[in-house]
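Table S2 (continued). Query chain:
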Amino acid sequence: MERRAAGEDAEYAQVVVSTIIATATAAAATSDGSSAQGLHTVLADWSCLLPARGGAPAEVVIGTLDLNHCAKLPAEELIGREPPLSSIAVVKRAYLSNVCVLDSALTRRQGVAQALIREAERKAKAAGVSCLYVHVVAHNTPARCLYEARCGFSLEQEETEGMARALNRPRRQLLLRRLTVPNHVT
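Corresponding output:
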């Protein structure tokens, strides 16, 4: 990830990656509102805590996702079909990846992932993206429910069992969400 962010990963030279971060104040993220101290027992490590700065309270990173603005993700077999691959596809397509939410009773089922996806959609629309994609493991029912039922994605493609076996991974699906792009962006 550091090499990608620094522009040193040749495979990602044609990919514009925006990381979207969801935070909560440390006090708000504790179950009883007592203090950030209690939160440290919930966090897996201290890297999830952003220090207080400029008079603002400390914040906890409770979720992130990457918005990849590109025609296709490097080394990816499942690529979007819309719009058809061409130079315009670079402008009109984006992929979500690395969708992560703090695994805690304090954040799960609180709409954090959905809020991250909505912000990614907003940024994608502003950049002129009309087709937003996400890869999901076919048997990951909670993730599929989030993308399909709550965020309006639909199945576009899926790997065969044979392809998944050959790649030594669970079978995956590629989900699509068509975005309505403002006229002034096109």
